[in-house]
Write a structure and sequence with these properties.
With about 220 residues, this protein is α/β, with parallel strands linked by helices. It is about 45% helix and about 15% strand. Helix 5 links the parallel strand 6 and strand 7. Helix 1 crosses helix 2, helix 3 packs parallel to helix 4 and helix 4 crosses helix 5. The two termini are about 35 Å apart. Bound molecules: adenosine-5'-triphosphate (ATP) and magnesium ion.
Length: about 220
């Protein structure tokens, strides 16, 4: 479905962080600009922890380029196999935001985050990996990230940066005494244009419509 190949190897700095998470499991929130490699980081971490037989949840807070659940929804799922992409994770809980863009939807996104984190806690995951949108450049965007951090209380805030585009957020985190791990986004990341992003959303919608139709039809067959 997507191009997140498991053949790509994590850079050494990422592996170092993965090993630390194995030693001290917890909630890992990944933040960065559009196309910084956030989802790839989450996928690699999920596979790495799964290979160590850990119980892992993934919370997808990206309403645009959604991987768990359809676009417009936040989604939570459990890693139950080695993954080629995050779309292979079946949603165990979703929260409808009603927009493919986070702009103007901060309150409902924070409410959804709180709801899904509570669902994650019930399932007693050793590690919850939290993927986020690349919405970071405006004051509203930075405030939304800070609100999500307050809601989630992550043990690890991972900042994936190409240059210094997260400077505003880093300053706010330093002022608030929230520690973070800054990693350089790899040079290999590929930028997707608006058409590619729209295509990704269309594919995601059709996948979920087919899935829902199958479930409805299977229920009917069971009844007959
Ligand atoms: N370490 C890497 N090595 C090679 N390619 C990579 C690496 N990290 C990311 N990529 C590629 O770069 C592209 C963007 O990565 P990814 O989708 O993970 O970024 P993102 O930050 O999640 O983007 P978005 O803001 O759209 O959610 C993808 O095609 C991915 O396969
Ligand atoms: Mg992503």
């Amino acid at each position: 479905m997507s191009d997140y190949s498991i053949k790509i190897l994590p850079p050494p700095a990422w592996l170092y962080v993965f090993s630390r998470i194995i030693r001290e499991p917890g909630k890992v929130m990944v933040i960065g600009d559009v196309d910084a490699g956030k989802t790839t980081f989450c996928l690699m971490l999920a596979n790495f922890l799964f290979s160590k037989k850990m119980n892992i949840g993934v919370l997808d807070l990206d309403v645009g380029q959604s991987h768990i659940g359809p676009p417009t929804m936040l989604g939570l799922g459990k890693v139950s196999s080695r993954l080629n992409n995050l779309e292979e994770i079946k949603p165990i809980a979703t929260y409808d935001v009603g927009s493919e863009s986070p702009a103007g939807f901060a309150e409902i996104i924070v409410n959804g985050t709180e709801f899904l984190m509570a669902e994650a806690e019930k399932r007693k995951f050793e590690v919850v990996i939290i993927d986020t949108t690349g919405y970071i450049r405006t004051d509203e965007a930075v405030n939304l990230k800070l609100d999500k951090i307050r809601t989630i209380e992550p043990d690890y805030v991972i900042l994936l940066e190409k240059e210094n585009e997260l400077h505003e957020l880093k300053k706010c985190l330093e002022d608030a005494g929230v520690s973070f791990i800054r990693l350089t986004a790899t040079a290999e990341t590929r930028e997707r244009d608006l058409e590619e992003r729209a295509k990704f959303r269309r594919r995601s919608w059709s996948r979920h419509l087919v899935y829902t139709l199958r479930r409805i039809l299977n229920k009917r067959v069971d009844k007959n």
